[in-house]
């Protein structure tokens, strides 16, 4: 039950919603696809750093960051300057007509310093979904095999090929089938809800296992081995290795709930791929580009290297830009014309991406993401003593809190996460849910300050009080 204070706040805010240019909010949305979810009745006006102002005059602390896109915050001056300068030079140097542009060369040089060393061949496109589609093309072409193994709960995008690999929520797929064939789903380890762990009375998993130095060290976490066994079984029952081109995985699951697989899991996938001549694709669209306090999310979990790494979102601070970074020999069987796209590698996007990488390196944002992530995890752990948060997990500034029941069980009341994000929105904190369970995710800018993080935690606490306070939902300490 949402508390009455929350309902009062909701009524007030709904009355305040203001349109723009003589159009009411209601009229604006009448002209927009109703199939796109809209989290708040506000119209964006401008952004700066960690804040957004809307046309109703309100200021919002943005811990959603365009779903993890605004890595350097809103309108970072160096990114803005790079985009403005580039727009005055050349906006678009089409990739078929000009193999490269000056800002593309700048970007290639920077990628050389941050990418895993064997991934030296880059294909640029505009969105994460496109990167996923192209990775599948490369894998099938190179291996001559058809099937792709994806994981339950994964989100790889909304185009048909990417949607076929996506199972984080049914709403992304329902009524849209049939989907392209050749996709096999394997279980992604969700240790909190693992039945073997529960049967064994814990099996080395406690709240915050993924946030060293807080809580139990991640490395000590034991795995029941179930997900890997399922994979081996799938090779016998669903897709023989001789038919399987690749395994695609988010090294830290994003939309599906910010899950980190147990130690050894990614390395085991690498070994399976090597054994069966399959490719390993890391989809780092959400967990990559310093989001977790390392350049790439997988670097927290394994020394094993992927054959392809996909990036988008945070790479260009909000300018649409994405890519597939691959081992060069994967193109041995391709000929010119087999891949492409009108806008891929636009000069504007390259300039924004190069500037973003410079800001991340030059302003110490890897360290800041790690430090502020610790601050966030500590704050959420503190709140878990008072409110029904059953797990705090993630790395760096990719952090989540999962809710459970008021009785301390894992069974949360339906819509808890939506109620909390709604309450936070009314208090001026932008947050998103994640996955099919009741989880709220935090994706602040990588340059969020210590005081902004404290402000965010304070607003989050007030939102929890709005939702749980006064009712029967506050966990008795
Ligand atoms: C891991 C992952 N892959 C792919 C995508 C799709 O990216 P886009 O929305 O840019 O197509 C997303 C988007 O959230 C994502 O999180």
From TrEMBL:
<dbReference type="GO" id="GO:0042802">
    <property type="term" value="F:identical protein binding"/>
</dbReference>
<keyword id="KW-0808">Transferase</keyword>
<dbReference type="InterPro" id="IPR005814">
    <property type="entry name" value="Aminotrans_3"/>
</dbReference>
<keyword id="KW-0032">Aminotransferase</keyword>
<protein>
    <recommendedName>
        <fullName>4-aminobutyrate aminotransferase</fullName>
    </recommendedName>
</protein>
<dbReference type="InterPro" id="IPR015424">
    <property type="entry name" value="PyrdxlP-dep_Trfase"/>
</dbReference>
<dbReference type="InterPro" id="IPR015421">
    <property type="entry name" value="PyrdxlP-dep_Trfase_major"/>
</dbReference>
<comment type="similarity">
    <text>Belongs to the class-III pyridoxal-phosphate-dependent aminotransferase family.</text>
</comment>
<dbReference type="InterPro" id="IPR050103">
    <property type="entry name" value="Class-III_PLP-dep_AT"/>
</dbReference>
<keyword id="KW-0663">Pyridoxal phosphate</keyword>
<dbReference type="Pfam" id="PF00202">
    <property type="entry name" value="Aminotran_3"/>
</dbReference>
<dbReference type="InterPro" id="IPR015422">
    <property type="entry name" value="PyrdxlP-dep_Trfase_small"/>
</dbReference>
<dbReference type="GO" id="GO:0030170">
    <property type="term" value="F:pyridoxal phosphate binding"/>
</dbReference>
<dbReference type="GO" id="GO:0008483">
    <property type="term" value="F:transaminase activity"/>
</dbReference>
<dbReference type="InterPro" id="IPR049704">
    <property type="entry name" value="Aminotrans_3_PPA_site"/>
</dbReference>
């Amino acid at each position: 039950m949402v508390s009455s204070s929350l309902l009062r706040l909701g009524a007030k805010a709904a009355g305040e919603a203001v349109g723009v240019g003589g159009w009411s909010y209601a009229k604006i949305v009448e002209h927009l696809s109703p199939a796109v979810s809209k989290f708040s009745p506000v119209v964006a006006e401008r952004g700066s750093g960690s804040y957004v102002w809307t046309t109703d005059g309100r200021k919002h602390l943005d811990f959603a960051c365009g779903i993890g896109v605004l890595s350097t915050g809103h309108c970072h001056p160096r990114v803005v300057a790079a985009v403005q300068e580039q727009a005055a030079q050349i906006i678009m140097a089409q990739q078929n007509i000009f193999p490269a542009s000056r800002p593309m060369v700048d970007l290639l040089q920077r990628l050389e310093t941050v990418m895993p060393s064997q991934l030296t061949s880059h294909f640029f496109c505009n969105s994460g979904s496109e990167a996923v589609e192209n990775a599948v093309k490369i894998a099938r072409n190179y291996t001559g095999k058809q099937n792709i193994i994806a994981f339950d709960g994964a989100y790889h995008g909304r185009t048909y090929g990417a949607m076929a690999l996506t199972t984080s929520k049914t709403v992304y797929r329902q009524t849209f089938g049939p989907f392209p064939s050749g996709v096999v789903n394997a279980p992604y380890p969700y240790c909190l809800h693992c039945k073997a762990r529960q049967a064994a009375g814990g099996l080395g998993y406690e709240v915050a296992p993924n946030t060293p130095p807080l809580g139990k060290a991640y490395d000590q976490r034991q795995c029941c081995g179930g997900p890997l066994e399922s994979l081996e079984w799938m090779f016998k029952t669903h897709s023989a290795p001789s038919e399987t081109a690749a395994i695609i995985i988010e090294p830290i699951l994003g939309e599906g709930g910010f899950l980190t697989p147990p130690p050894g899991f990614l390395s085991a996938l690498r070994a399976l791929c090597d054994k069966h001549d399959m490719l390993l694709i890391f989809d780092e669209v959400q967990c990559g580009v310093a989001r977790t306090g390392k350049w790439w999310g997988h670097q927290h979990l394994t020394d094993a290297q992927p054959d392809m790494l996909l990036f988008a979102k945070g790479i260009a601070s909000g300018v649409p830009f994405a890519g597939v970074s691959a081992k060069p020999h994967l193109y041995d069987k391709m000929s010119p014309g087999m891949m492409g796209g009108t806008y891929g590698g636009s000069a504007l996007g390259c300039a924004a991406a190069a500037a973003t990488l410079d800001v991340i390196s030059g302003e110490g944002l890897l360290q800041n993401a790690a430090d502020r992530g610790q601050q966030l995890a500590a704050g959420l752990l503190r709140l878990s003593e008072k409110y029904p948060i059953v797990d705090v997990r993630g790395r760096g500034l990719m952090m989540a809190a999962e809710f459970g029941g008021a009785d301390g069980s894992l069974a949360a009341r339906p819509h808890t996460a939506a109620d909390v994000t709604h309450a936070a929105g009314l208090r001026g904190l932008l947050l998103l849910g994640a996955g099919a369970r009741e989880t709220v995710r935090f994706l602040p800018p990588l340059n969020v300050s210590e005081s902004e993080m404290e402000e965010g935690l304070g607003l989050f606490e007030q939102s929890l009080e709005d939702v749980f306070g006064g009712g029967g939902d506050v966990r008795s300490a």
